[in-house]
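Quick one:
INPUT:
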């Protein structure tokens, strides 16, 4: 397996895979150095009885589907709780992981019907963006009924109240929670983009977006530099 990170702390561990089909200009992961690790080597690292939860992400884990599925199956037999983060580019693979993975994290950057917005953010042509959006939409449908966190990087100027309303309608019934992440709040995850060099939007603006989403999902977490808020309630 080609990885960009392998770490553990307390009862949690993380496995970060190398490679991604998207070309987001603000992404820091695509510039990280890759290292080769065997599945058994990774399993030995994670075999620590103290480790109960394993988060698998990185750039895009599903590009290495054969090795990833082997790792997931073995972790399941070790009774580890597994979270898988993905861009949703491979719905058929995700279907094969149901019953193995306990929680999914899927990043959405714009509404599913806004190929122009996606094209600008992911660095692909409009045609390729539309193909990706079809896969993302099918992934969300494949995982309907599973525990799914939709992860939204709130980039000023791109995630507007109008676009957030569309996202809310599109994920209603298909997400158990949403994580709103303030752009540039963690230098390890983001690089400056389109003249944006400081964390934003503000906490107040983020909370407004979160309350907007509460009509569509039962739980929203707002995270930024120096703040984290959680909202829960009833959603259709």
């Amino acid at each position: 397996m080609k990885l960009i990170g392998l770490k553990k702390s307390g009862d949690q561990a993380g496995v970060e895979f190398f490679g991604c089909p998207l070309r987001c200009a603000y992404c820091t992961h695509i510039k990280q150095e890759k290292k080769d690790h065997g599945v058994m080597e990774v399993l030995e690292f994670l075999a620590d009885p103290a480790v109960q939860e394993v988060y698998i992400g990185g750039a895009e884990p599903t590009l290495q589907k054969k090795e990833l599925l082997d790792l997931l199956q073995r972790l399941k037999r070790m009774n580890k709780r597994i979270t898988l983060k993905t861009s949703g580019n491979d719905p058929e693979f995700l279907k094969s992981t149901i019953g193995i993975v306990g929680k999914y994290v899927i990043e959405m950057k714009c509404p599913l019907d806004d190929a122009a917005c996606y094209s600008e953010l992911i660095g692909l042509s409009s045609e390729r963006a539309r193909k990706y959006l079809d896969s993302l939409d099918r992934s969300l449908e494949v995982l309907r009924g599973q525990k799914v966190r939709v992860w939204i990087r709130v980039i000023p100027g791109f995630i507007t109240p109008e676009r957030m309303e569309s996202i809310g309608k599109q994920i209603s019934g298909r997400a158990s929670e949403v994580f709103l992440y303030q752009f540039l709040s963690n230098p390890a995850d983001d690089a400056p983009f389109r003249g944006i060099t400081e964390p934003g939007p503000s906490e107040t603006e983020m909370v407004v977006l979160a309350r907007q989403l509460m009509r569509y999902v039962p739980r929203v977490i707002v995270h930024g530099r120096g703040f984290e808020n959680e909202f829960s309630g009833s959603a259709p």
